[in-house]
Amino acid sequence: MKERVLVIDDESLIRISLEAGLSDMGYEVATAGNIAQGLAAAERMRPNVILLDNCLEGDVGTDYIEALRHLDEEVRIIMITAYGTVAQAVEAIRRGAYDFVQKPFDLDELNLIIRRGLDELKKDRSLKAVKGKQRELIGNSPATEEIRSQIRLLAKNDNVDLLIRGETGTGKEVVVNMIHYASARQAGPMVKINCSAIPESLLEAELFGYEKGAFTGAVKTKKGLFELAHGGTVFLDEIGEMPLAMQAKLLTFLEDRCFKRVGGLTDIPVDVRVVAATNRRLEDEIAKGNFREDLFYRLNVMQIFIPPLRERVEDIPVIADYYLRHFNQKFSKEIEAIDPAYLGEMRRYYWKGNVRELRNVLEREVLFCEGKTLRGAPLAAFGGGAAPAGVKDLSLGPIDLEAETAAFQRAYIRRALALSGENSTAAAELLGISRFTLKRRMEDEDVRN
């Protein structure tokens, strides 16, 4: 998508030459012959850069810098004048101009100033949006290698939206960072919003922005995250928590790639990749009426599933070593290794909180470790990591999975029948299956009521 440049100058030859020259360089250009026309054009066009003549007929350009930046505080305003002085340049910068050039100017030099301003804007947005984020998926299990392969594919195809699924703490945000910074969008912003952390009444304004006066307290125009992420990536975390009304608006945006700010009338096109993530089973949320089926299929063009840590135990030693080195540096420690017995306990632990839980455990243990080998307190002492009731410890030896599954199913059926007074219909409702399915499973497992 083209960057937008507005030229405000009362000399028609300057306007014509700049419009032709900058258009040839790939910009979308509009012109205005006076301040009134310029303010109207800026509100309508929302330019990224404004070339503002300082000596307009009856007006001084520097007097209107604040008014132009009030429409968009990020706009880069470059002052141009035939009668520039150091004092004028200092005053222009003080009021919010980005740079100051004198006529006659070289078009190529002016383009360099414009490009520098735009590049700095992108960097500023990116730094605000993501700071110190992990950009490495740690591990060497087949599941992790498969995810890396999918990331490489998606990095090459940077216009494909995708859905990332996995339990809390598995590393969904890390995967988003890897995709963004390996793609052609890496120079653009990577902005994140947690859909569950923002009240429904504010979510639309956060995503799409709002116009001045759109509601009480909207004292100036504010860009939303989609607009700020132009040229980059938007990460919608916990998409399963998004209210239904907002889901409809998101679907419209994904189809059209443009939106209106709250209180606005103008369509604003943007170029962004949308990545959504959830720890919920969205198919179940659709069945409950909590999530739109059409939005699910629109987001699910490409899907990455991150298995829980307990299903990729090969990754645990690698992740543990990574965080050992990380926290050694953080706490100025010199721990050389993790005790093999403690590492074995890590491999057997359930890790309900996944990689995030493992990271927290390592941080505590490294902090309190006094020697060169990390032995650690029993993991059970941290709580929350025990396997669910009835799940056997595989470290004690192999099991008969089919027999264990059948026993688990029989226990649930008997419990449901007991609670329902041996009423098959009511028991089936408790189990979330049909009466016919319950009867068939009772016959298969030899359960009698």
Plain-language structure description:
The protein is 46% helix and 15% strand. The protein contains 18 helices and 18 strands. Helix 16 crosses helix 17. The longest helix is centred in the N-terminal third of the chain and has 23 residues. 32% of the residues are buried. The model has no long low-confidence stretch (mean pLDDT 87).
Strand order of the largest sheet: 2-1-3-6-7
Number of strands: 18
Gross morphology is elongated
Mean pLDDT: 87
Question: Which strand-content bin applies to the residues?
Answer: 5-15%
The span between the termini is 68 Å
Major beta sheet summary: 5 strands, parallel
Which stretches of 5+ consecutive residues score pLDDT under 50? none
Gyration radius (Cα, Å) is 29 Å
User: Which structural class matches the secondary elements?
Assistant: alpha/beta
Q: Count up the helices.
A: 18
The percent of residues in helical segments reads 40-55%
SSE topology sketch:
Elements: E1 4-8, H1 12-24, E2 28-32, H2 35-45, E3 49-53, E4 55-56, E5 59-60, H3 65-71, E6 76-81, H4 86-95, E7 99-102, H5 107-129, H6 142-156, E8 162-166, H7 172-182, E9 190-194, H8 200-208, E10 209-210, E11 222-223, H9 225-228, E12 233-237, H10 244-256, E13 258-259, E14 268-269, E15 273-278, H11 282-287, H12 293-299, E16 303-306, H13 316-330, E17 337-338, H14 340-348, H15 354-368, E18 373-374, H16 401-419, H17 424-431, H18 435-444
Parallel strand pairs: 1-2, 1-3, 3-6, 6-7, 8-15, 8-16, 9-12, 12-15, 17-18
Antiparallel strand pairs: 4-5, 10-11, 13-14
Helix pairs in contact: 6-7, 13-15, 16-17, 17-18
